Amino acid sequence: MSVRIDITGLRPERVAVVPSPLAELGMALHALSEPGHHPGLQGWVTGVTARLDSHLADRMCEADFLWRTTFSDLFMPFAGVPGRSTLPGATLADDLDLLDKLSDEQFVDAALEFTCALPYSTGGVSALDDAEVRRRALDLAAARGPQQLRFSERLLADPPRIRDWLRQFARDCDEAFFAEAWSRLRHQLAADARRKTDLLRHKGLAEALAAVSPAVTLDEGAARITVDKLGDGRSATADGGLLLVPTSLGWPHLMVLHRHGWQPVLHYPVGSPELASPPSVEQLTMRMTALSHPVRMRICRYLARSAYTTGELAQVHGMTAPEISRHLGVLKKAGLVTTRRRGRYVLHQLDVTVVARLGSDFLEGILR
After folding, report:
1. Per residue in 22-44, pLDDT tens?
2. pTM of the model
3. To pair with 82 at 20 to 30 A between CA atoms, which of 104, 335, 355, 368?
């Protein structure tokens, strides 16, 4: 399983390593909403949360599925600008201006990614244009809860209003906590970008990609980049470029933006903080046995990002609901999965805090 990027015809000057303030804000919001994914940021998360204005904290919950359960491509609008060669902005304001260059269809489709209603690596009809796609998106949003459904309804009814909401929310976050963080982080990210750029110029793309992550490899003969992830996807640079965007707050997430028609982006972490020690040998044995099945590993990848119903997991994995239930039972017995009821839906989610104690290799593998 992997994400593949066809780079046939890609010219060296069309590969760029550039930090993005907006992408890093997305990672900051994710870390604040899912601190279990980022054990090394506990101190920063605690400090920001303690001084956060209650009104802004409420607004952070209003659409947290854009950065908590998915990494919305809206935080990388530069990749969707026509021509597929736009670079991230030098400032957060510059990045936010690029949101206005996305069409309503691009904006809505990227915002609805959390519903899994639309194809990602291949082209498809927009929810703005097709009643059936729209209905399915709203049904899947409803399964996530009333908050997600309300957001999706507002988004489909008035995309410019949600676009304005997101811009203002980002500005308010910048004033409240992100400007201070970015003033520290941008120097580290800029330094890493310079190092990777030097590698590109003097040793080539293969060396630069190897420095990004051991999970990223280049087959020069096939003109293909492969990113080893628990997921499948494909993209192509075509007549556009390739972007490498470093993140400090995003470890351990190595992400690939491979949305159809957008410029491919590798969003890679520049640090690897240590995680806690494993639990007892007995608990570890039970948990590792539960995770020894490839299907259960794939289920864990989904449940690490969001809560899913048994039916949703069955549809995604092409299995029956009873088969999925048996796998979930093994994971729950090992204490790796929690279950909660929301109305008529029963939602399952990975306990990332428990998984983190298994070791950084496994956590990085399922969150990559």
Report:
1. 999 999 999 999 888 887 888 89
2. 0.77
3. 368
